[in-house]
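From the thread on structure requests for the teaching lab: each student submitted one protein with a one-line request. Submission from student K.M.:

"Model ER lumen protein retaining receptor-like protein from Trifolium medium, tokens only."
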Amino acid sequence: MICKTLYHLFLNCSAYRGFYILNWIYRYLTEPRFTRWIACVSGVLQTALYADFFYYYFISWKNNSKLKLPA
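Reply posted by the TA:
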């Protein structure tokens, strides 16, 4: 079973990335020449990977079963 510390680490990292995405959207709308496309794409990809982990974590928690990640 996954320990609570690791769960909180992933939760905080994904929240951090989520706020970064909001910051990029804000900067894109307010700054005339915001062009950090590589950083934005990689940040969205990393956030999607965190979301994928939390999806499987939530399903295992909901079903009260051991966490199984697809390999």
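TA comment: The mean pLDDT is 79. Residues 4-30 form the longest helix (27 residues).
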